[in-house]
Amino acid sequence: MGDETELLEAGRRGDEEAFGRLVAPYRSELHAHCYRMLGSVQDAEDALQEALLGAWRGLATFEGRSSLRTWLYRITTNACLRFQDKRPRRILSADYGPAIPPDGDLGEPVTGPVWVEAYPNDELSSETRYELRESVELAFVAALQHLPANQRAVLILREVLVFSAGEVAESLDTSVASVNSALQRARKTVDERVPARSQQATLRALGEEAEREFVGAMVAAWERADVDTILGMLARDARFTMPPLPAWFDGRDDIGVFLRERVFATPWRMVPTRANGQLALLCYQGDKDGRFNLGALNVFTLNEDNLITEITAFLDPAVVGRFAHGS
Questions:
Q1: Is 98 inside a domain boundary?
Q2: Domain end call among 162, 191, 220
Q3: pTM for the complete prediction?
Q4: How does strand 278-286 pair with strand 292-302?
């Protein structure tokens, strides 16, 4: 606490380096907060930059009546709310339009601030507790985007970050009664859209050894274009989506046709990674010269039977490129 107090006093005197050190312990969690609010890594970075600039300019107004963390979350949440006013809500493919037949037109990429983006696991500190990792899973973040911005903020601040109703009311300049009402409505909407068990719970139940075997089997099957093995790892009602392409496939049979006739027209090399706290593979596509170029990020969602219910194949180079470092 003494060190934080010294940095705070130095920051108030205009020491930018001291301010940077003061907020550094909170950057990772604030970034994840912005991502939950906005569904986009780029938007999260922009909102966090705006928030920290606001905190720097307003440091003299921080009186210490709340913790520094609470104060930073108040500024960051309001920056996200202002940012949200400029953007449409982010969605997943199934919210954009119906599934297509396996021989259907994939369509042109839908660009702009449309899709929920993948979140790099290295943005999460090693100390991040399981509940916070659950809160960046694709299904949860996508469900949040269906909430009005104010309800979204209330749910995250109360349920994920465990701030009190009074703290949230102060942060959002509203009443405790309004916070409790918004929380009740938000819970109902989100509960209707997320699986009963999180991916974190599913992976913990699977165990590290079985997880390695699962990933190894998927890598081997994909690299040898073994469609039958891949389909054996899918639930019958699995989905295969490809943002920013609008097309997506519903059901194991249609996915099988798509894999056989389109995906494996070229060879692939796969590298295990993590995204949104979930199992994922970086996908390198072979070209006619024998080179392999990064082409996709496949994020897997598993059910309680350890079968894949969704493969979200992110194709946007700006999204996929964030995962290439160190691969």
A1: no
A2: 191
A3: 0.93
A4: antiparallel
